[in-house]
Structures are given as structure tokens and as C-alpha cells.
Write a structure and sequence with these properties.
5-stranded antiparallel beta sheet; about 50% helix; alpha+beta
């Protein structure tokens, strides 16, 4: 269970702050939802309480985890399938996992591949989405701006 004010990560969407817990009736079914505000884009997301474990919602990473993420970004590209479809599916699984280290791997591998060979439109979108999720978590974890978080990521590649 999370509380109002907790900083959490919603896989595939990014990090946010729980602002409320509300009961809503949707399609004739009453359920309780976390109302989460995303700092980037100022979007609000409602997450059903009963699905919280299945979805993989977790606390925002701490300083040690963020340091490890930056180390992963500095690292070497890991083996990826030469087949675009397999590579895309493997990366999508890593993003869906909600694991920040796997997310960092996707950002690193796609960034390196983009510099070496370029990316297809689908993979470029995936990179942007993965980077957005990573930035949103760094913003909340380190209490910095979106620009500062992007700079941290960019510096890891230089």
C-alpha cells in the first residue's frame, strides 16, 4: 500500500506523486484508485488499487539506485538481436518490467545503436519513451528539474 504524498513509478508511464485515493464507479463497478500526478507534462493517472502489484508500481529509486543507473548508462552496449522485431520485443519487456536498471539498459543500448547505425521510427519512439520514464524518476528521486535530469543522462554518455 502507498500513501498520499508517496513518490512512485508506474511502469510504461513514469514516476509521479500520489495525490489522493478515490473511489470511483466505472462501468458499474466501484473501485478505489490512486490518483497520481506526473511532474512532467502535469498529467494525472488513476491506478486501481487492486491491480497495484500486477502492474508493478513501486517506490521511486533512491540515490544509490540512481548512481547505479548512471553507471549502467556509461557502460558498454549489451548483446541485442540483429532482428529488429526480436530486439523491439525484448526492449519492450524490459520497459514493462518497471525495473529501473533494465530501463537504463534500454536507453543505453538504443542510444549507442542510434549513434552507430541509426534507429527505425519505432525504436526511436521507444528510446524517447524510455528516456522520458527515466527522466521522470530521476526528477522525483533527486528533486531536480527535467532539464537537469536530461543533462545527467547526456553526461553519462559523454
Amino acid at each position: 500500500m502507498f500513501n498520499i504524498g508517496d513518490k512512485v513509478v508506474y511502469p510504461m508511464h513514469g514516476a509521479g506523486i500520489i495525490e489522493a485515493i478515490e473511489e470511483k464507479e466505472i462501468l458499474g463497478e466501484k473501485q478505489k484508485y490512486y490518483v497520481m500526478r506526473m511532474p512532467i507534462g502535469n498529467m494525472k493517472v488513476m491506478i486501481p488499487l487492486k491491480n497495484i502489484k500486477d502492474i508493478g508500481v513501486r517506490q521511486v529509486a533512491g540515490d544509490d539506485e540512481i548512481a547505479e543507473v548512471l553507471n549502467i548508462l556509461r557502460g558498454e552496449k549489451s548483446k541485442m538481436s540483429a532482428n529488429w522485431n526480436r530486439r523491439y520485443r525484448a526492449n519492450m519487456e524490459k520497459i514493462k518490467s518497471g525495473n529501473i536498471f533494465q530501463l537504463a539498459e534500454v536507453v543505453r543500448n538504443l542510444t549507442i545503436r542510434d549513434k552507430e547505425k541509426g534507429l527505425s521510427t519505432g525504436e526511436r519512439k521507444m528510446l524517447e519513451n524510455a528516456k522520458h520514464i527515466l527522466v521522470s524518476e530521476i526528477v522525483l528521486s533527486k528533486n531536480i528539474t527535467e532539464e537537469e535530469a536530461l543533462q545527467l543522462i547526456e553526461n553519462a554518455f559523454n
